[in-house]
Amino acid sequence: MDPWLVDDLLRRALAEDIGRGDRTTDAIVPPDVRLTGVFVARTSGRIAGLSVAARALALLDPDVQTTLWVKDGDDVESGTALMRVTGRGRALLSGERVALNLLMRLSGIATATREIVRKVADLPVRIVDTRKTMPLLRVLDKYAVRVGGGANHRFGLDDAVLIKDNHLAVAGSIREAVARVRRHVGPFVPIEVEVERPEDVDEAVAAGVTAVLLDNMTLSEMREAVRRAGRRVIVEASGGITPENVRAVAETGVDLISLGWLTHSVRALDIAFDLE
């Protein structure tokens, strides 16, 4: 990940944690001492965020030396050494928590995504994320989804159109909402609309949308919605989808399955930082 994407975020994270100074480290570690530490996976999973963790330390010590033993996207077992860093002791110990927090979070997202993708790998469907990311961490969260084998939905409100239930409540109908959007964005921007009933797909297709989002439908409703869509639009399923039912959802014929919990309910991968 290029530094320009994350440096501002990392500086703010480091400032939040270190504040006016690391009282413990500054008292114990002399300023000229160099130390070496290793990031080690304590549980198995897919790794994501090594460059982000390394960059956090480099912002505190530009001369830090990094040796990678694995790369983002690798699956590791418990006990695997991931990365060695050598640099000013104060920088390593003061930046340790920010580096670990991000590495653990991103690896957790990548691992969860990997597990879901594996369940439907033989079916013509893609697993995608949502905007339910940690504020200010979206670029990292969505990166981790890709590392896990998933794909990204829209990054923000400015790069795609998704007409949701509250928009429809204001516009009064799918047709009117699509017409208003089309007048605003022009003829070339794709439009997706959220539908709650299979029969709403007919109105959405007639209105000229690019995709429909099936919101919290049952499996039978999804199959009917896919039938009505007739491959004329992209069909996305969302809401109430779990590791236990994701394959059944994929088998209805939908093109995309979006999962907000990949990023909003992250179970971090357990990773340690130990001095050699």
TrEMBL record:
SUPFAM superfamilies: Nicotinate/Quinolinate PRTase C-terminal domain-like, Nicotinate/Quinolinate PRTase N-terminal domain-like. The keyword Glycosyltransferase applies. It catalyses: nicotinate beta-D-ribonucleotide + CO2 + diphosphate = quinolinate + 5-phospho-alpha-D-ribose 1-diphosphate + 2 H(+). Its EC number is 2.4.2.19. Keywords: Glycosyltransferase, Pyridine nucleotide biosynthesis, Transferase. Pfam families: QRPTase_C (PF01729), QRPTase_N (PF02749). The keyword Glycosyltransferase applies. It is an enzyme of class 2 (transferase). Residues 109-273 form the Quinolinate phosphoribosyl transferase C-terminal domain. One of its GO terms (biological process) is quinolinate catabolic process. Coiled coil: none annotated. Involved in the catabolism of quinolinic acid (QA). Belongs to the NadC/ModD family. This is Probable nicotinate-nucleotide pyrophosphorylase [carboxylating].
